[in-house]
TrEMBL record:
Its EC number is 4.1.1.35. PANTHER family: UDP-GLUCURONIC ACID DECARBOXYLASE 1, UDP-GLUCURONIC ACID DECARBOXYLASE-RELATED. It is a single-pass type II membrane protein. The lineage of its organism: Eukaryota, Viridiplantae, Chlorophyta, core chlorophytes, Chlorophyceae. Catalyzes the NAD-dependent decarboxylation of UDP-glucuronic acid to UDP-xylose. Necessary for the biosynthesis of the core tetrasaccharide in glycosaminoglycan biosynthesis. One of its GO terms (biological process) is D-xylose metabolic process. This is UDP-glucuronic acid decarboxylase 1. Residues 45-236 form the NAD(P)-binding domain. Its cofactor is NAD(+). Residues 1-22 are annotated as: Disordered. It catalyses: UDP-alpha-D-glucuronate + H(+) = UDP-alpha-D-xylose + CO2. One of its GO terms (molecular function) is UDP-glucuronate decarboxylase activity.
Length: 249
């Protein structure tokens, strides 16, 4: 999955060695900060780590032995999703909104923070597009400063109402910038654009993953996405009293 730099996995990081006159203050060329030499553990930031996908990712990384920092504003995420990780020595949670910058020393950034279900992203569309644009800009700024590898979770919605099935990466989509769903779709398109521009302009190593409909444990039945709606409707037909459990088939 390549010409876009799309693909999974992340690794590496660490400081560059270009110096400028401010080097004694810990600043290298191009505003890159001088980071501590790598510790034994890979330091990973997961934004949106208390959400459905993010909590599974945090769990995987913690079990792999990475030093994981989860940041989340808990708009759609929940402490319940990460309760089993709290207290582990290689896991930290910070309540933070990615619309605001944050300074951390990390080797990799998995940037997931964004409401993903239509009921949630349409609840406050301006905040949704700010989260995608400003949030991604802040996280790319951080990646640039500490030379971390960066991964953006984008979406199949970047293809809009596609005229080609299945969609390939070379297809650019059939999009609408002014509709009710545009805060999400166009926000992710802008986030992808920023990601590639940071890559071209500042040499940041990046990955973009366009996720299609995903479901599983910890996704709420009333989440409002296509699979949870389907399961909820089937459940309601077969068991009228089924309410509020997660989506595990
Ligand atoms: N699950 C899917 O089917 C699917 C499909 C396509 C794309 N994605 C993408 O994957 C990522 C994760 O999706 P998910 O399904 O886990 O959704 P989710 O709503 O469960 O998780 C999103 C997380 O981001 C947090 N968040 C939202 N705005 C934030 C902000 N401004 N600052 C900090 N945290 C914030 C939420 O509280 C939540 O924990 C999203 O970027 C989404 O667009 C998911």
């Amino acid at each position: 999955m390549s010409d876009l730099g799309i693909g999974a996995g992340a690794g590496g990081g660490g400081a560059t060695v270009r110096r400028d006159p401010r080097a004694s203050q810990g600043v290298l060329a191009d505003g890159v900060i001088k980071t501590k030499p790598r510790v034994e553990r890979n330091r990973v930031l997961v934004t949106g780590g208390a959400g459905f996908v993010g909590s599974h990712l945090c769990e995987f990384l913690v079990n792999r032995g990475d030093q994981v920092i989860c940041i989340d504003n808990f708009f759609t995420g929940s402490k319940d999703n990460i309760a089993h990780l709290i207290g582990k020595p290689n896991f930290e949670v910070i309540r933070h909104d990615v619309v605001e910058p944050i300074l951390l020393e990390v080797d990799q950034i998995f940037h997931l923070a964004c409401p993903a279900s239509p009921i949630h992203y349409k609840y406050n569309p301006i905040k949704t597009i700010k989260t995608s644009f400003l949030g991604t800009m802040n996280m790319l700024g951080l990646a640039r400063r500490v030379r971390a590898r960066f991964l953006l979770t984008s979406t199949s919605e970047v293809y809009g109402d596609p005229l080609q099935h299945p969609q390939t990466e070379s297809y650019w989509g059939n999009v609408n910038p002014i509709g009710e769903r545009s805060c999400y779709d166009e926000g992710k398109r802008a986030a992808e654009c920023l990601t590639m521009d940071y890559h071209r302009e500042h040499g940041i190593e990046v990955r973009i993953v366009r996720i299609f409909n995903t479901y599983g444990p910890r996704m709420a039945l009333d989440d409002g996405r296509v699979v949870s709606n389907f399961v909820a409707q089937v459940g309601a037909l077969m068991h009228p009293r089924v309410r509020g459990c997660d989506v595990s088939l």
